[in-house]
Amino acid sequence: xxxxxxxxxxxxxxxxxxxxxxxxxxxxxxxxxxxxxxxxxxxxxxxxxxxxxxxxxxxxxxxxxxxxxxxxxxxxxxxxxxxxxxxxxxxxxxxxxxxxxxxxxxxxxxxxxxxxxxxxxxxxxxxxxxxxxxxxxxxxxxxxxxxxxxxxxxxxxxxxxxxxxxxxxxxxxxxxxxxxxxxxxxxxxxxxxxxxxxxxxxxxxxxxxxxxxxxxxxxxxxxxxxxxxxxxxxxxxxxxxxxxxxxxxxxxxxxxxxxxxxxxxxxxxxxxxxxxxxxxxxxxxxxxxxxxxxxxxxxxxxxxxxxxxxxxxxxxxxxxxxxxx
Length: 325
Ligand code: 5GP
Hints:
Bound molecules: guanosine-5'-monophosphate
Helix content: 40-55%
């Protein structure tokens, strides 16, 4: 960032050395220079505070990386990747250099200047380290993606075939569809009950989806499952995925993609659960949602449900499903 006052000073010094009229040059604006150096000192101090907090394990490196991504010119974004890694407990110079080589990141980079792939590689590296050090209690994985991509089908397949995964059951204010069971597909609640859950802090996140009904993730069952060493899968919308990432930066975000846009349209219309106006609204939302796929750690294309489910579970790094006939 340009420091206010610097350009005036340089211009004044240049003109003084060029024509020897030092006494005629305008006086540098002292106030600006003082403010600039104060700002630089404050920025350095803020970066030092972030590094110290990482070193004391008060701040997760993942949180710092996420903040740097959200605000590349903020305090975290301006941290050099070398300084950042060196502040992580048990990473010394050799490990830091090895990591940068393996991750193909130049030591000159700042966190906010990393490319998407570099950022994702660095994130995976940090997650693996945190997991090995026992600092990640367990895996919380969020499966999101555009409407009708088959999130529900993939997560149902996982629930039925991978008993080690807890599939979170959301609360919703929408009415059950035929065949849906209260407590299995959703907790179907009215607005008053949903308000109560929010007020009592029972929801990890909640959102109004498709401008219609409210959906939220109950916090307790997730915390209990993670404490018991289970992996947890949340199948929620994009806003929910963002909220979970803010609340739990170690969560892994998976984006489920359709093989093609035409296939997505076909699936939405084919399932026939929405009126045409609602279908149209959901397709509009889907376009916006597809544009957000770069925010996610992993992408899985849902061509075949069993394959997509296996890929999601592999990304959770849990035991494989029992083989099926
Ligand atoms: P549906 O009404 O078709 O079952 O779900 C509509 C949308 O709500 C889907 O995109 C689904 O992922 C999302 N959704 C389901 N449960 C939750 C939740 O607990 N939180 C959030 N934010 N979205 C949810």
